[in-house]
Design goal:
Strand order of the largest sheet: 1-2-4-3-7-8-9-10
Shape: globular
Largest sheet: 8 strands, mixed
Number of helices: 10
Order of helices and strands: EEEHEEEHEHEHHHHHEEHH
Structural class: alpha/beta
Helix content: 25-40%
Strand content: 15-25%
Oligomer: single chain
């Protein structure tokens, strides 16, 4: 059984792997929209050889759900056959997810971790660097953004704003199945059956909350306040002009994988791992 952090916002399930005394940087892996921690398993399996790695399911995802005896998942609303309301809540802001990540990092005893996030998780990773009340050893020293969801791109933000209502009614998961498949290039060769079905299985309210969070996150403002290093690794497409948003250009490193779609952690982990390890080795993470 994975340990659970129990808080007012509901349970957060996580796992901790890798050597406990390696003397290397602690890492936190944060999955993307409607996924769970298995979406970053290819990187976890590589990094845990030399790093202490924390993987978690964001609230409402994977094992971080309220589960009732009939097998259904609760999302913070009162059920008619219950005397007490469920304790879980739906996150509608990236900052809420970021606070969960920071809380789990403290619970696990991490020291100055680097948060590695994919897609929506990349926004969460960035937001962990911008929480003014964060204190203690578990405050992140930097972040890696893997093919992030729109950070400042207006049309990208508008797309997610338009999806909120549609996704909230996607009880069959077909809308999300189609979206997941659209992110896979014709040349991608990994088996995405599990990813597609995981994305389709998340409760529609949780999915809509994530869409709203991506639409409303002010990535431009956070980049404008950036005080810790970040590495952004794009995949098949790249958001332009991110460097113009960061006053201290030395804090931003941009990269791109070759020959892979959005889920490049499945297609080319052999590209991502050395890129991230090199960045960790040459970057001042002394925050």
């Amino acid at each position: 059984m994975s340990p659970l952090l129990r808080s007012a916002t509901g349970p957060i399930s996580y796992s901790l792997s890798g050597p406990q005394d390696a003397g290397t940087r602690d890492l936190v892996l944060v999955h993307g929209w409607c996924c769970d921690r298995t979406a970053l398993a290819p990187l976890r399996e590589r990094f845990e050889r030399t790093h202490r790695v924390l993987s978690l399911d964001l609230r409402g995802h994977g094992q971080s759900r309220e589960t009732y005896d009939d097998g259904s998942a609760g999302v913070g609303s009162r059920r008619g056959d219950q005397d007490e309301p469920a304790t879980g809540t739906v996150a509608t802001r990236i900052e809420e997810f970021a606070d969960d990540v920071l809380a789990v990092s403290r619970e696990a005893g991490l020291h100055s971790p680097v948060v590695i996030g994919h897609s929506l998780g990349a926004l969460v990773a960035l937001a962990t660097l911008d929480r003014p009340d964060a204190v203690g050893a578990a405050v992140p020293a930097g972040a890696v953004l893997l093919d992030p969801a729109p950070l400042a791109h207006a049309r990208g933000k508008a797309f997610w704003a338009d999806q909120v209502e549609q996704v909230s009614r996607d009880h069959s998961g077909e809308l999300r199945r189609g979206f997941a498949r659209s992110l896979v290039l014709p040349t991608d060769s990994a088996d995405y059956t599990q990813v597609v079905e995981v994305m389709a299985s998340v409760h529609p309210r949780v999915a809509a909350g994530g869409a709203q969070a991506m639409a409303q996150f002010d990535g431009a403002a956070v980049l404008g306040r950036l005080s810790a290093p970040i590495l952004v690794i794009q995949a098949a497409t790249a958001e332009r002009d991110l460097d113009r948003l960061v006053p201290d250009r030395a804090l931003l490193t941009l990269g791109r994988t070759v020959g892979a779609g959005h889920f490049h952690q499945f297609e080319v982990p052999d590209q991502l791992e050395p890129m991230i390890e090199r960045w960790l080795s040459v970057t001042d993470l002394s925050r």
